[in-house]
Amino acid sequence: MEMTGSGSVAALTAAYEVIRQPLGEILPRLSTLLAELLPHRAVAELSTHCAHSPFKTYGDAEITGRLSTADLAPLLATGTPGRPWQGTLPLAGAERSVLAVTSHATPRGAVLLFVRDADGGEADGGGDDGVLPAVDEPAAALVQALWDVVTSHFDRLAAEAVPGALARSRTAAGTRARVIAELGEAYSAALTGLLGVLRSRTLDDAAARATATDLAVSALVELRAEAERDQEIAEEPAGQAFARLAESLRPLVRYSPVRLELGAPDSQLTVAADVAHAARVIVRAVLLRVLEQETVTRVHVGWQLTDDELRATVRDDGPGTLTSDGLATGRVTDRLDVLNGRLDVDAVPGWGTTVSATIPLRVSQDPAPDPLIALGERELEVLARLALGHRNRAIAQELHISESTVKFHVAKILTKLGVGSRGEAAALFHAVA
Question: I need a surface site. Which of 167, 185, 245, 420 has the fewest CB within 10 A?
């Protein structure tokens, strides 16, 4: 992009104004700086480097409230870095003019989407479809350059994140992965029920349509309820938790020859919502695998509770050839690992398979705290550089402090961590981060 001296200074100043903001303010600042050059109603980003919040929006709530990662993921997959794309997309219930900018400054890329402002009028000859004039090449190139700078900044922050930021990011990533997996399970259950309706030979077209509609509506209600439910602090009675499981399982076999038998827990105990939900997800995943066997005619699903554990069992009368390797998919093992549970498979050829998932209800003690939590921000900065092998003088130069101040911080770090040497402190840092 060709620029005059003053234009270059303006562009560099704009970049500086953006990246100096806190992470949560970078997108709003970028939007504000580009508002005159590129009028827009909303802006959204999908930045794959960020486990904490990869999808962000800013602007008109009428639009941002209806955008999702599903809108941006295709743009990220098909976009060409350095070549902004302009056109129209169906977004937030209407065809809208957009500018999409892709950057590969981070390992898996990042995309920035501007939903342009149509208030300025239509293009000459644009008709009634609201298509706007194309953004001129210098303006698009400036937007591309700014986005490359911002994503490079993101990549550096991700690569050099201090342990506290890493811990928050990993916690958020784990929660997001769990929610996505849970919604995926719910979708699988709904689709299996719909397939059962479509394959049924006992329903005519009208009945099939009505039944499929009921299943779809029920699935949507369940998905919305799951998305809104607070899983972190809530508890629910064991019987109620199992009843929710039963409701999600019945559509899977409603129009199949398999008879589903349910054994509700004979207990008045309550269980943590994350335990109950994990047990439901595991049972659904196992049942889906069991139903893939051709000779199964009966499946029994039950829960048993003691003061110390919940045991969920799925027992079939199939060929008895299922193995723990075939059942221990990521969605099952990941949940059991997090909750310190285990999966047992007892298969008897010719008689069937019994799968048991055991989840502890009690934790003997709280998880060990982050050993670095006692350190202040400056001490973390010193420790991060110490862990990279930097000496005191280099650390002092990098942090713009005196060498004696570095020595003071190192002494405080060793005391707070309860270690006797710089090497032990570095090893502890690497173990945590």
Answer: 420
| AA letter at 142 | L
Model pTM score: 0.40
Q: What is the Cα–Cα distance from 373 to 418, expressed in whole angstroms?
A: 13
What is the β-pairing status of strands 55-59 and 85-91?
unpaired
Burial of 286 (0-12, 13-18, 19+ CB in 10 A): buried
Please check whether the two domains, 5-159 and 166-360, share a CATH topology: no
Q: For residue 323, how far is the Cα from the chain centroid?
A: 30
CATH 3.30.450 fits 5-159, yes or no: yes
The CATH code of the domain at 377-432 is 1.10.10.10
Q: At residue 381, what are phi and psi to the nearest 5 degrees?
A: -65, -40
Query: Which residues lie below 8 Å from residue 200, measured CB to CB, with a gap of 6+?
Result: 208, 255
Q: Find tokens 């029994």 and name the residue.
A: 300
Residues in Cβ contact with 393 at an 8 Å cutoff, skipping those fewer than 6 apart? 403
Question: Which is it for strands 235-237 and 270-272: parallel, antiparallel or unpaired?
Answer: antiparallel
pLDDT tens for each residue of 187-219? 777 777 777 777 777 778 888 788 777 777 777
* Other Cβ atoms within 10 Å of 255 Cβ, number: 19
